[in-house]
Input
Amino acid sequence: MTTPSTTVPAIQIDRVSKTYGATKALQDVSVSILPGQVHGLIGRNGAGKSTLLRMITGLETPDTGAVRFFGEDAPPAADAKAWQQRVACVYQRPSVFTNLTIAENLFAGRLPGNGPSVSWRTMQNEAERILAEWRIDLDPRSLLSDAPIEERQMLTIAKALDAGTRIVLLDEPTVQLEGSAIRRLFDKVQELQQDGVTFVFVSHFLREVTAICDSASVLRDGKLLWSRTGDDVKSDDLVEALLAGQEQRRHRVESAAATATDTAPALELRSATEKGGAFTDVSFRVAPGELVAIGGVGGSGKYSVGEAIAGLRRLGSGSVLADGEVIPTGKVKASQKAGVGFVPADRHKDGYVPQLSVAENMTMGVMDRLAPAGFFSPRKQNEMSRTLIQDVALVPPNPALAVSGLSGGNQQKVVLARALARDPRVLVLISPTAGVDIAAKDAIYALILRALADGVAVVLISDDVEELLVSSRVLIMREGRIAAELAEPTEEDIVRAIEGLE
Amino acid sequence: GGDAKPADTQLSYSQPHTDPFQNAENVGSMERFKKLGYATIPATNADRDPAQQITDIQTLINKGAKGLVISVGDADAIVPAIEYANDQNVPIVAIDEAPASGNIAMIVRADNVHMGELACEEMGKRVKAGSAVITLDGDPVTSNGRDRTNGFNDCMKKKYPDVKLVNVATEWDPAKAATGIETALNQYDNIAGIYNQSDATFFPTILDTLKSLGKLVPVGEEGHIVQVSVDASPMAMTAIRDGYLDAAVAQPMTDYIDYGADYLVRAIKGEKFKEGKTDHGSVIEKRKGNLVDLLPTPVVTKDNVEDPELWGNKKFALEAFGASK
Amino acid sequence: MNSARTTVITVPSGRSPFLGSVVRNVRELSVLPGLIIVAVIGAIVSPAFLTAPNLTLILRQSAELGIVVIGLTFILLTGKLDISLESTVGLAPMVAAWLLIPAAMGGLGTMINPFVAILLTLVIGALIGLFNGLLVVKVKLDPFIVSLAMLILLRGITLGVSQGKTLAGLPDAFRYIGSARWFGVPAAIWVTGILFVIAALVLRYTAWGRALYAIGGNADAARAAGIRVDAVLITTFIVASTLASFAGLMLAGRLASVTSGMGQNLIFSALAAAVIGGVQLTGGQGRIVGALLGVLLLGTLTNVLTLAGVPTFWINAVYGGVILLALFVGRFGARPSRT
Amino acid sequence: MNSARTTVITVPSGRSPFLGSVVRNVRELSVLPGLIIVAVIGAIVSPAFLTAPNLTLILRQSAELGIVVIGLTFILLTGKLDISLESTVGLAPMVAAWLLIPAAMGGLGTMINPFVAILLTLVIGALIGLFNGLLVVKVKLDPFIVSLAMLILLRGITLGVSQGKTLAGLPDAFRYIGSARWFGVPAAIWVTGILFVIAALVLRYTAWGRALYAIGGNADAARAAGIRVDAVLITTFIVASTLASFAGLMLAGRLASVTSGMGQNLIFSALAAAVIGGVQLTGGQGRIVGALLGVLLLGTLTNVLTLAGVPTFWINAVYGGVILLALFVGRFGARPSRT
Ligand SMILES: Nc1ncnc2c1ncn2[C@@H]1O[C@H](COP(=O)(O)OP(=O)(O)OP(=O)(O)O)[C@@H](O)[C@H]1O
Ligand SMILES: Nc1ncnc2c1ncn2[C@@H]1O[C@H](COP(=O)(O)OP(=O)(O)OP(=O)(O)O)[C@@H](O)[C@H]1O
Ligand SMILES: [Mg+2]
Ligand SMILES: [Mg+2]
Output
């Protein structure tokens, strides 16, 4: 699959630097990617991957350095159309229009028609073609807001790959996707690669990188660590490059189920059913110190169960009990008082307040403790957050920093710290390591282990099979119900259960 | 329709904006119609919007009004409404302000520029040369504000050039008037008078402001600030009686109301009016093709403040202003 | 596969366009019951309501508001706001009239050609829009606050230029569009109607129109998709201000003069009309037909309140109450599935 | 470890709070140059400017605006808006005065106790806030448009209740807070000052105050973190409206009467003051000290324009121009690192 080295590189990044305020996001980075290659771009959170992609799409301009496509200088920054003809990109941040139809989403920025007028008929037909190609079962005329999250991600991918450009950039495209969707994506990538399309692929999942990339670069703190082609790209090298000397641990939490039968459960769901909602008749128990993982395809209702325990959703029937006491549902405060700590699925949406400080974000849920008589002392708040910062090993360990200035992984740690701030008896974690680099992942798992050791009951809800494997007791949800309970499952067991192939 | 019975003939009134003075004109006119035995259509209020007043007048006519008294909000912008009424043969009497053109049965008004000049005379004879006078300027968007400012300013400049004028933009807002007075008193130590373009609007606020500054001194005592106002509302009458207000140029409001309604009723009966003296001490003149009954604007001072014919002493005015004698 | 998703799929594709468009219409159509109720009340309280002159009057008095609402809707769709549109309604024709009429009547005395004056009105509108657009897009000032400051400034300039006077004596050509009749119906009504149709077509069938929705829905994504967000936004401000200046021209024609308070408070009615008509202030949602229905509701309401003889002191309270009610109905008439 | 990150860490922890607070201050302090320039101009154009009575006057005339701005800032911090505050300034004391004064003077004739009337003023304010809050939080109507409808409705009710009259003859107790002097300085200034201090403390040191920032920054995250978003929002609307009714009480005391136009256009000044002072309309950002500086800027500006004798016709244009300039300076004086 390697291309003759004589060809001009499809993308040549030449000594590019970019600085945001005090942050040197990119320093003197040079990478060449040959036509028809799938180039993996990896690095820890905040290493500069997304920034580098923005330089290649023309969305931002480098402070110094240049980008060339097929030997030609990049178009001027203002000429959006020219950039669009060269590069298509799936951005890390969701870039969709929920207020528009699926068809329009697929053609935003390149509406078909003559001159200034738009041909809805052509657009509809073309959209149907794309949806059929990608086996996405949606009506192109329906609003995107009606489409499930993971399908939206598939649509942005489909759009990028349909743009007909010779270069496609994918920034963590698989984070929202489930197994079969990822397979569809990879098939498509390989198909286009046959036609000579060049890809840059960003992911924290090294298996994905080794599976489809034939060259790769590693960024660290804005600098290029190395760039390699072909057989030189090995999984071990990647791990080594990312961990930079730290050792990688394997996590597997032994089931506490044996003890669970004789101890009173810390958390119990009894026939919990959301009114007109996402799940029905869900029952399970979690003992103190026990880890239970919940998996399932997108839309199976697993996230909603977590949100219900946390008080973000109201039950129609059934109940949630903490330490044997029924918690009123639909009230976050009530759940918190019952000892539930919660890490939401989407940290950007539900996790943190970007312009507020680390300290404030971490202590947001415990203000009643900091200020029993109404007024609180910022000193106390800082002290408390310093402890939490140490607990989660936040980098940088500064409580006064605004969370918007932290890298994704560290933002996730702030959200986790917020969940821990109340000394929870029960932790509900939804995809706690989504978009987080392996080192940070390690740190987060270590924290979960410590919580378990302290007797906290943990519910870990995830789309990621690898993450589910951490637990020795895995519940699988399908269509809003618990479809299977697996003890000591293998990866294959989980995949089969999720896909319903018992 | 000259032959229709009054009870079958509907009359109405169009008000341009809300303030106690305009409200009193509206209420008084509608009552006058009823007293004369006519049916009425509820009056309209355009809320400072000239376009809305045009629409209001058209709507009243569409609804069957056979004659209208209007208080004109904007002399020029009202013209299309007058033209519409002319097309429909509905007679119009304008009070308080003259439309710039169109066919009006009669315009019943006083001259605002003249009121400013009268105020200037009253002020000028009471303040010394070298002193300063605060003028509380009404909103220049309204023609009465503009005319009262210009009438006063021009007269002062001509006849009393040695009196300094300190103009305060009030936009008819009592709070702005109060602040303006205070600012001017801080700024100048030779303030000898205040020209108040509408006592109906600015009383009691500015009296109270002066009081709190210790500047409310009765006429004739050391430190008295001369006050001359326009309107002569019930509150101004009280202030004159109490000796705080030196003189008020009276808007002949009751006359607007009474003669306005009377002219309308006569016009509906087909009467045509002529230039010349009237039976109520005024003269009808022809201006820009329309007849204007220019009502006298008496100056009210301590000497004539008890005159029951002054509108500020009438019962309906006391009620409309929530004042008592 | 859960049930929700299945539903979407099993809708036969032949039927869904119709269903889809009905669903998309619900928000706009939620004004209709209100409009009908107000009209029925009007017909009951006064036989004059359903007469041709009265209906013409409603349309004529709504024309300027309608034109401002078209521009405002464009801006709201992008998620921005421009409350200074009402001051443009006043300023643009004021400056033109000032250059147009003799010094004796309050003008500057240059007495330019009326057609030049009309052109000038529109150019002033466009320039104000450009300035607003630049402040919002390039200086990145909040559109609400910047247009508030502009509102005060422009009103102030209008007052300064006119010295508070109303400028009358406008030549017929300048007044034409606001005062002529075509086939017995005021030209302003025809023109406004045509502008609404054009606006609907532009929003639906041009790349620029669709870009407004995209930008209002997700400006970052629009930028990433290659839409020239800044350029589209600035042109939107220009178009809206130009329309406002045109509305001012029409109003001047109707008033046979230019008053220094022209347009005052118009923006409140315009916002109410657009929002009652289903245009979201958060951007990306709403259609021009809804805005039109909103305009008609307000116009009919004003008319019916006058016909009904609601006491003048209570008319504003009733007006406000009905708007509130209409918002309520609109909210529940078309509750979005998720908030 | 890149250099930027290292820098942050190596800042001695003792210094960083100070640095942090300076950085956080920049946006608010960006009003200062403007305020100083206006004051210097004032001192130049008139020797009366820097006298105690004049400075007292500036503060006194800014008091009502200041109190409304406190409430408005609370609401803006949550990312909501309430433009009906200005109508509450008018309505609450109007209803109280109507119940308070004799029928002969335009009242209802119930002649309730003045202290009951004061309490009633505040209760009416609170109820309006509750109603607004419920409409925004529970009915999920857009705060701008719902408060616009409320503005029209409440103004209408004020007009209806008063029948357009100015209610004078208020008893001294009712007027006390707006007219008394404590230690030679108007009580209203003391009270406003104290309210500003309390507001600053509440925003900085109470869970409720911090919740406003959290909600304005990210309401979903605040909810998920256990902040009772709906309750906090509703109390914010109540507090703001109650403050507005208190401002109305103070204004009535100053004017020695209640007029049916009281509070009109006040919200524009309040919004301008808050935003010039660095409070973001998008929520989550701004401090009370900035809002205070904004209020002082506007108050000083009005005073200086009067002292300078700017012609009546041009005063609004100058006022608008200066506000626009202040927004400009604020924008570039403290350009946020990310937009
Ligand atoms: N617009 C911006 N303003 C300020 N700082 C920025 C901006 N964009 C990125 N940064 C900073 O630049 C650095 C690189 O960010 P980037 O998003 O490229 O990382 P990444 O490698 O994509 O990380 P992740 O794996 O978490 O997505 C980070 O420190 C980030 O905080
Ligand atoms: N409030 C609600 N009202 C109606 N339907 C809902 C509601 N919340 C969720 N759903 C639907 O219920 C189903 C399950 O949602 P949920 O987000 O819990 O699933 P999930 O397994 O977490 O899926 P995903 O991976 O897409 O997040 C989805 O189809 C979702 O659209
Ligand atoms: Mg990234
Ligand atoms: Mg989910």
The radius of gyration of chain C is 21 Å. Chain C has 15 helices and four strands. The pocket of magnesium ion (ligand 3) is lined by residues A 49-50, 92, 171 (CB under 6 Å).
